[in-house]
Amino acid sequence: MKELREKYDVYVIKVDVEGAEVSVLEGSLETLKTGKAILIIEIQPSNLHSVQEILHKLGYKIVHIEGLNYLAYKNRAVQSNSNHILYVDKFKGIIS
Predict the structure, then answer these.
(1) Which helix (H) or strand (E) holds 33?
(2) How many angstroms separate the CA atoms of 85 and 96, rounded?
(3) Count: domains in the chain
(4) What is the DSSP string of 49-76?
(5) d(CA 4, CA 63)
(6) Which of 23, 68, 70, 84 is the most exposed, having the fewest neighbouring CB atoms within 10 Å of its CB?
(7) How far apart are CA 56 and CA 75, in angstroms?
(8) 59: closest CA among 27, 33, 81?
(9) Which residues touch 91 (CB under 8 Å, ≥6 apart)?
(10) Cα–Cα distance measured from residue 39 to residue 72, given in angstroms and rounded to the nearest whole number
(11) Cα 36–chain centre separation
């Protein structure tokens, strides 16, 4: 992740790692601290509390999408319903 962060601005991270969510987040702390990245993350029920704790400490808000899927964001307005997610970036406008 560090090499990608140094070369590119990371705006979206998709995490689907079948139970290794905590390890992935711990390995991505520097990227997540920037607050630029939105996470689309599948969270196994046994890891939900730990993932929430990590993300909340970093200032992220978490929105349940459906099933095991969540959206985590920082410094952005996000609205969701079961059919649509609207992402509003204060710098780039509305991205749907």
Answers:
(1) helix 29-33
(2) 7
(3) 1
(4) HHHHHHHHHTT-EEEEEETTEEEEESSS
(5) 26
(6) 84
(7) 13
(8) 33
(9) none
(10) 5
(11) 10
Query: Where does residue 96 rank: exposed (0-12), middle (13-18), buried (19+ CB within 10 A)?
Result: exposed
Q: Return the structure tokens found at 55.
A: 């993300």
Q: Which two tokens stand for residue 7?
A: 């070369």
Please report, in tens digits, the pLDDT of each residue of the chain (96 residues total): 566 556 666 678 888 898 899 999 998 888 888 777 888 999 999 999 999 999 999 999 898 988 999 999 886 555 555 455 554 444 444 444
Q: Using an 8 Å Cβ cutoff, are 62 and 72 in contact?
A: yes
Domain that holds residue 7: 2-95
CATH number of the CATH domain containing 16: 3.30.110
